[in-house]
Amino acid sequence: MPNRVYKLIEIVGTSPNGTDEAIRNAIEKASKTVKNMDWFQVVETRGHISDGKIAHYQVVLKVGFRLED
User: Fold this and answer.
1) Which of 8, 42, 58, 61 is most buried (CB neighbours < 10 A)?
2) Is 61 within 8 Å of 43 (Cβ atoms)?
3) What is the pLDDT of residue 33?
4) Cα distance between residue 36 and residue 50, in whole Å
């Protein structure tokens, strides 16, 4: 395996349907402008409550992408 160098960014995905969808939304959107993404780490999960029910999920991700040579 060659030596690689990564940069980290932090993004937040949202969804009214759950944390998994919030993660997918964040990764899919970021992949349109960030090249060479290799991994992610969930660092925070939170949500919005409305009328005593969960209205929206928010997931904070760290995303690592490879720097090009």
Assistant:
1) 61
2) yes
3) 96
4) 38
> Can you name the CATH fold of 6-66?
Dodecin subunit-like (3.30.1660)
Q: Please tell me whether residue 19 adopts helix, strand or coil conformation.
A: helix
Whole-angstrom distance, CA of residue 7 vs CA of residue 59:
20
Bin 64: left if φ > 0, else alpha if -120 < ψ < 50, else beta: beta
pLDDT tens, 4-51? 899 999 999 999 999 999 999 999 999 999 999 999 999 999 999 999
d(CA 49, CA 59): 15
- pTM, two decimal places: 0.88
In this structure, which amino acid lies at residue 6? Y
Query: And the tokens for 12?
Result: 């937040």
Domain ranges of the chain: 6-66
